[in-house]
Amino acid sequence: MDVILLVLGLVCMLIGILGSVLPVLPGVPISWLGLILLYLAPSLEFDWIFITITGIVAIGLYVLDYVIPAMGTKKFGGSKAGAWGTTIGLIVGIIAPIPFGILIGPFAGAFIGEVVFNQTRGNHALKAAFGSFIGFLASTFIKFMATLVYLGLFVYKVWTNLDSFF
Q1: Where are the transmembrane segments (predicted)?
Q2: What are phi and psi of 66, to 5 degrees?
C-alpha cells in the first residue's frame, strides 16, 4: 500500500510540474494532492499542520494564477481579449511545431486579441500584448517554482523515511 501511494504521489508531482506550464492543468493543486497521497501512507504519521499550510499555499497560488496575468494586462493597458489571447496563444504555441512556440504563442495571441477584438493599433496593441505576456510569465514562474518546492518536500520526506517504505 505504501509503494502504491508513493508512486501515485510521485505521478501527481510530475503532472503538477507539467500543469504549472500548461493552462489546462491546475499544477500546484495537483502537486499538493501528491503530498497528501504521500502522507496517507500507513507507515508515515500524517502531519496536519504541514498539509494545511501547503494546502493554503496551493489554493492561494491557484487564485493568483488568475489574478497575476490580469494585473499585467491591466497595468499595460490591455483588455480581457489580450488575456484570453495569451492563453489561446500558449495552447497554439505548444501544439504548433515552431521553435520557441511556448514563448511566441502567448505574446502573439495577446497581440492578435488586442488588434482583432478591440481594434487596437500599433504601439498600444504591442504594449498591451507585452503586459499580458509578462503577467503570464510571472504567473507561470511562480507556479513552476511552487511545484518544484513541493517536489523537493516530497523527495525529502521519502528520503528521510526510506526504510519505512521498503
Answers
A1: 47-68, 88-113, 133-156
A2: -90, -25
**Which amino acid makes up residue 165?**
F
62 has a pLDDT exceeding 80: yes
Task: Give me the pLDDT at residue 120, please.
Answer: 63
pLDDT in tens, 3-42: 899 899 999 999 999 999 887 788 999 999 999 999 888 8
**Which DSSP category does 46 fall into?**
-
> What are 20's three cell numbers?
504549472
Q: Judge if pTM exceeds 0.70.
A: yes
Q: Exposed, middle or buried by CB within 10 Å (0-12, 13-18, 19+), for 7?
A: exposed
CA distance 103 to 51: 34
Helix (H) or strand (E) segment spanning residue 18? helix 2-19
**Residue 38 phi, psi (nearest 5):** -60, -45
* Closest residue by Cα to residue 114 from 124, 125, 122, 106: 125
C-alpha cell at 21: 506550464
